[in-house]
Amino acid sequence: MLSIIINHHKSPEVLKLCLAYLKQNIPYAAELIVTDSETIEKTELMMRCDFPEVKFISAKNNIGFAKSVNRGLTASRRGDYLLIINADVIISDQNAVPKMLEYMRANPEIGMLGPRLKNISGEYQPSCFRFYSPLTILARRTPFGRTAWGKRELKRFLINPITQQSSNPAIPADWLMGSALLVRRKAYEQVGPMPEDYFMYMEDVDWCRNFWEKGWKVVYYPEVFFYHYHFQASKKRGPLLDLFTNKYARTHLLSAFKYFKKYGLKVPRYGA
Known about the structure:
Layout: E1 2-9, H1 12-25, E2 31-37, H2 41-50, E3 55-57, H3 65-75, E4 81-86, E5 89-90, H4 96-106, E6 110-118, E7 124-125, E8 128-129, H5 134-141, H6 148-157, E9 171-172, E10 175-176, E11 180-184, H7 185-191, H8 203-213, E12 217-228, H9 241-245, H10 247-263
Parallel strand pairs: 1-2, 1-4, 2-3, 6-12
Antiparallel strand pairs: 4-11, 5-12, 6-7, 6-11, 8-10, 9-12
Helix pairs in contact: 5-6
């Protein structure tokens, strides 16, 4: 059995599209849970009128990504597997989720599996990575990223599926973007909830690290793909300027500070 947790924040039209595709392309009964932050009346009315069969969990305030996901995980009852997606993710292929489930069942050491993500235009979207180092943050947030050393660090950080191809289509990754994750319930129960140290950003990095440290593999599975309308709110105006003008960039830096304070500067490597 499968439980699907949809994380949402104030975009009811996007959520409606996500749910419509889910109902169309999940070829069996699944438990559907929408966990909503800073709930607005339009979303609440839509869920009540158009999707009464979906469990809807509202919140008065914006509680952040990890807390929102964890509320959905706690509310899930039926699934041996837990599919966590953001509301801006579209599953447009009836075979995608069954294929992921089949791969998880055949490989019991995998605790978390992530699909390939594509922009709505069809372009590849990076979603599997190696762990951050402080240099990664510098390379992504300052002009250091334009230097030879910065470019080398960014190349280390990003796992390129093309260069990792082998007879096995799946690629072990240090961490996966939290926008779309298939999690084994047994692993979740052992590892625990997504870390709530962060309001936004780094919680998926931390959670994946916990999976590896508990003996569960985190794997990127490019054999299937989901569409993801990915808006990079933390990166708008270019290096350095963002630190002063973009609150999401500042949130990212604060989350990175909390992450390195928690784990130190050592960068482990579990994946490819």
